Fold this sequence. Notes:
By secondary structure, the chain is mainly alpha-helical.
Amino acid sequence: MGDGKNMKTKKEKKISKIKEQLAQLRAKLKVDNEGHQHTKLKPKPPAKPKPAAKPKPAAKPKPPAKPKPAAKPKAEAKRKIKEGQKQKERSRKKRKERQRRR
């Protein structure tokens, strides 16, 4: 039966400790609220009215841009493109042959 009494005193100590913390927090909250009330007493200065915006002058229309003709690839560039395509085809064929052998 000694354990029951011991537990009771531990719980009572915890409760009293929590009550003390609560009292401290309430006191702190009261001080904070009083401090905020003093700051609210200061009146704000009235806002100055903004000056009326001046109308902007109308922008001059830009002349339409002339479309540039697409540059035609030169013969050498065409040849390189075709060589690249042929090389891709060769590599694809080699891959297919390897897959067939497996």
